[in-house]
Amino acid sequence: MGKVFGLLGHPVGHSMSPNIHNDAFNQIGIEATYHAFDVEPEFVKEAVHGIRALQIAGCNVTVPHKVAVMEYLDEIDEEARLIGAVNTIVNQNGKLIGYNTDGRGFVQSLIEELNEDLKDKRLLLIGAGGAARGVATALMLYGIRHLAITNRTIEKADPIVQLAKTLKTPAEAVDRAQAEKSLDEYDVIINTTSVGMSPNIEDMPLDLGNLKREAVVCDLIYNPLETKLLKVAKKEGATTINGVGMFVNQAALSFEHWNGVTPDRNRMRKIVLEQLG
Ligand code: ATR
């Protein structure tokens, strides 16, 4: 019998992960299947123990379980520990190891789209939740030299500023008004909040009046493919990057952790775009 992989989340009905991973297994010739498991929050512990009991080879973990699964794992990779969340579990002969490929997936997509070094760019992160922490951690481990964080609730940016201290990266929290006023100081602006996500597609997390033309504006959102933030940025002449690349890369990195081979990311991207219609 082939290996079984899965997704632990709630809800998981609209997940694109089964399609892209099952296609990659077929394509590469790995005898395995990937199934989305809808796990109610009260059953997270049982679900993780179930991975061992049923000898499931590996899992992705999504909302709302990325933090909750951690205490039931045997080992947490350094990056996932810094982020404080796990999106990938590898079952290594009964030992469950947690990784986080979200942030790295984003950084990879940013580097690929820009085709240049990020280290000396001035970056502004919008948001301070779990997604922001993943992106911030990966950017700092990559070696950026400065990070600004803005958030509706500014105090919530403090833990990311603290993390930056640990990783010896200069970072500061700036309130929304200040960020908007000095927006032309930033080379890369990254929205990690859900503001602008379908169905609230007219919402924007930040006013882009002072955006510089050479700026790059990224949105982790991929539904819609082009958020209002990206539409406005494009109109201003900026380069824009949506969340599809990050989604594909995090999946490809998980696949590598499980199988030791890299899947065809162009195929993955095609499937994602087809499914998003
Ligand atoms: P995720 O894991 O997707 O990051 P999260 O941890 O719940 O989710 O974080 C949500 C982020 O989106 C936060 O930065 C949140 O801002 P607050 O810390 O002020 O709550 C931001 N966010 C969500 N809805 C928002 C809204 N309507 N306006 C501005 N920011 C919003």
Automatic annotation (TrEMBL):
Annotated metabolic or biological route of this protein: Aromatic compound metabolism; 3,4-dihydroxybenzoate biosynthesis; 3-dehydroquinate from D-quinate (NAD(+) route); Metabolic intermediate biosynthesis; chorismate biosynthesis; chorismate from D-erythrose 4-phosphate and phosphoenolpyruvate: step 4/7
Ranges where the Shikimate dehydrogenase substrate binding N-terminal domain occurs: 7-89
Enzyme Commission number(s) of this protein: 1.1.1.25
GO cellular component: cytosol
GO MF entries: NADP binding; quinate 3-dehydrogenase (NAD+) activity; shikimate 3-dehydrogenase (NADP+) activity
SUPFAM superfamilies: Aminoacid dehydrogenase-like, N-terminal domain, NAD(P)-binding Rossmann-fold domains
Annotated NADP(+) binding sites: 78, 127-131, 151-156, 220, 243
Positions contributing to shikimate binding: 15-17, 62, 87, 102, 222, 250
Catalytic activity field: L-quinate + NAD(+) = 3-dehydroquinate + NADH + H(+); shikimate + NAD(+) = 3-dehydroshikimate + NADH + H(+); shikimate + NADP(+) = 3-dehydroshikimate + NADPH + H(+)
Keyword NAD: no
Residue ranges of domain Quinate/shikimate 5-dehydrogenase/glutamyl-tRNA reductase in the record: 112-194
Entry's Gene Ontology BP terms: amino acid biosynthetic process; aromatic amino acid family biosynthetic process; chorismate biosynthetic process; shikimate metabolic process
Cleavable signal peptide: none
Keyword NADP: yes
CDD domains associated with the record: NAD_bind_Shikimate_DH
Domain of life: Bacteria
Active site per database record: 66
Domain SDH C-terminal intervals: 243-273
UniProt keywords, alphabetically: Amino-acid biosynthesis, Aromatic amino acid biosynthesis, NADP, Oxidoreductase
Subunit and partners: Homodimer.
Purpose of the protein: Involved in the biosynthesis of the chorismate, which leads to the biosynthesis of aromatic amino acids. Catalyzes the reversible NADPH linked reduction of 3-dehydroshikimate (DHSA) to yield shikimate (SA).
Family assignment from sequence similarity: Belongs to the shikimate dehydrogenase family.
PANTHER family according to UniProt: BIFUNCTIONAL 3-DEHYDROQUINATE DEHYDRATASE_SHIKIMATE DEHYDROGENASE, CHLOROPLASTIC (PTHR21089:SF1), SHIKIMATE DEHYDROGENASE (PTHR21089)
Stated name of the protein: Shikimate dehydrogenase (NADP(+))
Species, as recorded: Halalkalibacter alkaliphilus
The organism's taxonomic lineage, starting at the top: Bacteria, Bacillati, Bacillota, Bacilli, Bacillales
Gene: aroE
